Amino acid sequence: MTLNTQPTPFDTNPKPGFIERQLISAKFTLKNSFLRRGLLSIRHRGLRDEDVFLASYPKSGNTWLRHLLTGVIRGVPTPWRGGIDTVSHLTGRHHSLPAIASGGGRLIKTHEPYRSEYKRAVLLVRDGRDVAVSEYFYQQAYSRHSFLYQNSFDIFLDRFLDGHVNSYGAWHSHVDSWLDSHRLDNFLVVRFDELKNSTFGTLRAIVDFIGVEASDEILRGAIDDCSVDSMKNKERLYWESRGQSNRGFVRAAKSGGWRQHFSLEQEEKFWSVAGNAIERLGLDRDRGFQTSSSGNGRDEKTTSAKGATCH
Questions:
Q1: Which whole-number Å values give the CA distances from 259 to 1, 134, 162, 285, in the listed order?
Q2: Does residue 108 contact residue 44 with C-beta atoms inside 8 Å?
Q3: 49: exposed, middle or buried (C-beta count within 10 Å: 0-12, 13-18, 19+)?
Q4: I need a labelling partner for 56 at 20 to 30 A (CA). Which of 18, 44, 98, 111 fits?
């Protein structure tokens, strides 16, 4: 079973015309040019050594983690939009955030590769094959430059491995930049599958690392508030109130769900480029499918983790 490349029900972006496609391509190139480095320097002004960064490559579970932490810190259910930004926000929008972490640090979200300004961090990592599938569906639904992939996951995967699908470079280079940093003693590395399979214990470790005091009851309440059903319901109500009921961000994220979408050739291509980064995260190749005697079948083994599934 290869990836379904037909437009999804959430693919609400009209396809741009020729001139607009040229402008979007130019804008995408500019976003990934040397000019962006200057903008990043501006966005990273005013940071403190005590700040804790919630770091990840896109589509690795950062939004879900921010919802969980907001529920822990505020102690009340968190709305789909607006609530999490009062507790944590992107670099460049961090100046007015409250002091939450030990020592008066703030919680700041980042998708950037490692930078020397990042002194303390919770690094959330996910199998890059799952990231690729999630990013593909997300861009099909929301991105104005998804036409660059010609509705083909194979083309998208090549660009993903080359670091040309967003502004953050290749997934494996991003992972290596963080793991190669000399500050690992001040980082808490959390795997997405650990957060899904052992949500309470992993969230407790994150909260303790940040330096937030919270009872077990508070943690369990936050976890319940961010279950898959709760998150989807929050999002549904949010978009329905704005007359856009066909939009959606929360998917049924699976640890190992990539096995339902990758072909054997695509997995081999991915592993040849990024397999070392997967192994550095303590993950096995464990492809979970094998070529059948007919040459085009596979074992439909899929690991579906329980728990909240907000990305």
A1: 9, 12, 21, 11
A2: no
A3: exposed
A4: 98
Task: Return the bridge partners of 89, or none.
Answer: 108
Rounded to the nearest 10 degrees, how much is the dihedral formed by the CA atoms of 193, 165, 112, 172? 50
- Read off the pTM: 0.80
pLDDT at position 254:
67
Contact 88, 97 (CB under 8 A): yes
> Any alpha helices (H) in 227-263, and if so which ranges?
228-240
Contact 56, 111 (CB under 8 A): yes
* Rounded Cα distance, 12 and 111, in Å: 25
Q: What are phi and psi of 123, to 5 degrees?
A: -100, 110
Contact indicator for 227, 207 with CB cutoff of 8 Å: no
201/219 Cα distance (integer angstroms): 10
Starting at the earlier edge strand, list the strands of the sheet with 52-55: 88-90, 107-110, 52-55, 120-125, 187-191
Rounded CA-CA distance 228/233 in Å is: 8
* pLDDT reported for residue 146: 77
Write the single-letter amino acid at 246.
N
Residues of the chain with pLDDT under 50: 1-14, 22, 24, 289-311
User: Residue 245 is which amino acid?
Assistant: S
Q: Tell me the per-residue pLDDT of 161-175, one tens digit each, with 9 for 90 and over.
A: 999 999 999 999 999
The pLDDT of residue 78 is 83
pLDDT tens-place string over residues 83-135: 788 899 989 889 999 999 999 999 999 999 999 999 999 999 999 999 999 99
Instruction: State how far the alpha carbon of 198 is from the alpha carbons of 194, 201, 245, in Å.
Output: 6, 6, 32
Written as one string, the DSSP assignment of 142-161 is H-TTGGGGTT-HHHHHHHHH
Mean pLDDT, rounded, of the chain: 81
